[in-house]
UniProtKB/TrEMBL annotation:
Molecular function in Gene Ontology: acyltransferase activity, transferring groups other than amino-acyl groups
Gene Ontology biological-process entries: lipopolysaccharide biosynthetic process
Protein name, per record: Acyltransferase
Transmembrane segments: 7-25, 31-52, 72-92, 98-116, 162-183, 195-212, 219-236, 242-261, 268-287, 307-325, 345-366
Top-rank taxon: Bacteria
Alphabetical UniProt keywords: Membrane, Transmembrane, Transmembrane helix
InterPro entries hit by this protein: Acyl_transf_3_dom (IPR002656), Acyltransferase_3 (IPR050879), SGNH (IPR043968)
Domain SGNH: 407-665
Record carries keyword Nucleotidyltransferase: no
Domain Acyltransferase, first and last residues per copy: 6-324
Naturally occurring in which organism (per UniProt): Pararhizobium polonicum
Record-level GO cellular component terms: membrane
Pfam family membership, one: SGNH
Length: 683
């Protein structure tokens, strides 16, 4: 097929936004659509090659796979090799184990399945620190390369018209599945080939339309294609369901350019400039390099790297891309190295041997839970705090909006009890207190029951912006409130991440510790059909008002309420922060964040709670234990490697919970003493 400079230019349109998006430039919030453009280009080029060779009756499946191996594997293996020393030196054990598994998956052309399997989860690590995360798209293309030629060979005998109709039908089915999946199984939808196939097949259909020397030319349509791609780059963001019908916009843009940006059009001239073609030529290498470079920069840095550093690294990736294109890609495809492996058997055999070596390395890297022996003792001790949360979190932190629970759930009750008049309710911040609370209450022969739900404030009548939990919170806490009414519950301990749901923003400690969390906010359930805004003052005011009203309702109905004020957030993953400092040779592992930052974050909630006045209200202020206690004007995160108060960037470890739980126990004991008339108590 005839070389088209504008297609290489289109590659640059695809790769540049991807790189800038992964570098963290918010302006390029839809830069991920570059992958979809790559899919269309790949579908077009591969199908064009197959058609041309079939028309000449010299298509060979073995030679096809040889060309793909020469194109994809040498530089991929080289990038993997370059990652190994940095992984050894800088990665925490969990990161190393995940990286090692990804090496195995990459070599087996299945990394999209791995990342689908490992993605998500309420406490999932930041994807930005996975060096091989981007290879999911490479795996999708490789799966296409494996299956599509066989599909064409099978249907070619029935004629080109039947073949095109079959391709179009499969593409349509894949698109409809992607739209359905974007709502019903979003994570799988993103990674799996059956919901991405239509993008590749859109390129295949372009190849059928441009068979032989047939060309179409239209300035209007090709410019429109470029325009909708640019629109997608800046208009889409990580809240855009993808892939779905939204993906039609950039895919259609790529199709219009492939079909109508023939030589002489304005679009072809723009895409055929030397810089655009140059970047397009090295786009595969650039795509391979950028994610490992960015990920290792984030892994190495104690806080989020600055945008200046990420900009410099993006430029450095261009240099690496040129070098690997010049000295690895090109020689293996058509240079002297290609002559050393002249036959399909040799190139495929050699590739299999190298892949087997990397797979062996992957199994080794995944052993010993990520080669923990590499780390100094203090780093290992700090990281142990990531697991320092009671298994009760897995049992009593619900996740699916359950409403018909068999109350009381035995494992969420103090061991000595058959029932309890005291219940701890809330979200994951309540669940983080639960294990220590159950142990402490049990040791003092006091009943306690725990019920919590991920990402839900502990009242009915709210919905959360997170799509996963949007419809789960209201029914769960409606069920809990029904239980409270019918069971004779007398005392409620309320612990929630109150301020997050009001403000909506991930916590930023102002010192480089920025929580990796999508904006999460709540609004009243009867407004679920309205377009709530995170920064809408009216929404924040009514949420605060409803907080107070719901607490007041319990108090007025005769319940005692132990109200746990906001727990200080850390911003950085504390065990990892301590461990990385220890790995850097730092011996003073006492870390804290600004108390002023805590006050700014929580002032609205604290002010609202302070307005509540009732004799049945008991207040517990976690800031009294963490802030201005160990360090003046600071909220402590850790004292040393053995005393780390958080298991991530905002949830208390059992060590941290031990600072708060005694106050809960004291409040409940005071309530019991008052009810028996043994002692006067001031709430």
């Amino acid at each position: 097929m005839k070389y088209r400079r504008e297609i290489d230019g289109l590659r640059s349109v695809a790769v540049i936004p991807v790189v800038l998006f992964h570098a963290g430039f918010q302006l390029f919030s839809g830069g991920f659509i570059g992958v979809d453009i790559f899919f269309v280009i790949s579908g077009y080029l591969i199908t064009s090659i197959i058609i041309a060779e079939r028309d000449k009756d010299n298509f060979s499946l073995l030679k096809f796979y040889e060309r793909r191996a020469r194109r994809i594997l040498p530089v991929l293996f080289f990038v993997l090799l370059c990652c190994l020393p940095f992984a050894w030196a800088w990665m925490l054990p969990g990161q190393m184990a995940s990286f090692a598994r990804s090496i195995i998956a990459v070599c087996l052309f299945g990394s999209n399945f791995l990342f689908w399997h490992e993605s998500g989860g309420y406490f999932a690590a930041a994807s930005e620190q996975q060096p091989l995360l981007h290879t999911w798209s490479l795996a999708v293309e490789e799966q296409y390369y494996m299956l599509f030629p066989l599909f064409m060979m099978l249907l070619w005998r029935f004629g080109r018209r039947i073949l095109i109709a079959a391709v179009a039908a499969v593409a349509l089915a894949s698109l409809l599945l992607a739209q359905y999946g974007s709502v019903n199984f979003a994570t799988a939808n993103f990674y799996l080939p059956n919901t991405r196939a239509w993008e590749l097949l859109a390129g295949s259909l372009c190849a059928f339309l441009l068979t032989g020397e047939r060309r179409y030319k239209s300035n209007i349509l090709s410019l429109a294609g470029l325009a909708v791609i640019v629109f997608s780059i800046f208009a889409y963001d990580d809240a855009t369901p993808f892939p779905s019908l939204y993906a039609l916009v950039p895919v259609l843009g790529a199709v219009l350019i492939i079909l109508f940006a023939s030589e002489g059009t304005v679009t072809a001239q723009l895409l055929s400039t030397r810089p655009m073609v140059g970047i397009g030529l090295v786009s595969y290498s650039l795509y391979l390099w950028h994610q490992p470079v960015f990920a290792f920069a984030r892994i190495r840095s104690l806080t989020d790297p600055s945008m200046i550093l990420m900009s410099l690294l993006a430029v450095a990736c261009l240099g690496l891309a040129y070098l690997s294109w010049r000295f690895i890609e090109t020689p293996f495809r058509k240079g002297s190295t290609a002559h050393l492996l002249p036959t399909p058997a040799r190139i495929l055999g050699s590739s299999a041997v190298v892949a087997a070596l990397f797979i062996s390395i992957g199994f080794y890297g995944a052993s010993d839970n990520g080669l923990q022996f590499r780390l100094p003792p203090d780093a290992r001790a700090a990281l142990a705090e990531q697991e320092n949360r009671d298994p009760v979190m897995d049992t009593c932190l619900f996740d699916k909006g359950e409403t018909s629970l068999p109350h009381p759930v035995r494992d969420c009750l103090t061991k000595h009890s058959t029932g309890s008049k005291t219940i701890l309710i809330g979200d994951s911040h309540a669940a983080a207190l639960a294990g220590e609370a159950l142990r402490s209450f049990d040791a003092n022969n006091i009943d306690l029951y725990v019920m919590a739900h991920s990402a839900c404030v502990g009242f009915s009548g709210f919905y959360v912006s997170n799509p996963k939990y949007k419809l789960r919170c209201n029914p769960f806490f409606t069920g809990i409130e029904d239980y409270i009414r019918t069971s004779g519950t007398q005392t409620l301990i309320m612990a929630n991440r109150w301020s997050l749901y009001v403000d909506g923003s991930p916590f930023d400690n102002g010192e480089g510790g920025v929580e990796h969390l999508k904006p999460t906010y709540i609004d009243l359930f009867d407004r679920i059909d309205e377009e709530a805004s995170q920064n809408d003052p009216a929404r924040k005011a009514r949420v605060l008002k409803q907080y107070v009203a719901d607490i007041q309702k319990y108090l007025d109905s005769g319940h005692n309420v132990v109200l746990v004020y906001p727990i200080p957030e850390a911003g950085w993953n504390v065990p990892e922060y301590v461990a990385k400092n220890a790995m850097s040779g730092i011996t003073n592992l006492e870390f804290s964040t600004s108390y002023q930052r805590y006050q700014q974050r929580n002032q609205a909630v604290i002010a609202a709670f302070d307005t509540i006045s009732h004799p049945n209200l008991f207040r517990v202020r976690p800031a009294d234990f963490f802030c201005n206690s160990f360090v003046k004007d600071r909220c402590v995160n850790s004292l040393n490697a053995e005393r780390v108060f958080y298991f991530d960037d905002n949830h208390l470890s059992d060590t941290g919970a031990r600072l708060v739980v005694p106050a809960l126990l004291e409040a409940v004991e005071a309530i019991a003493a008052r009810s028996t008339g043994l002692a006067p108590v001031k709430p």
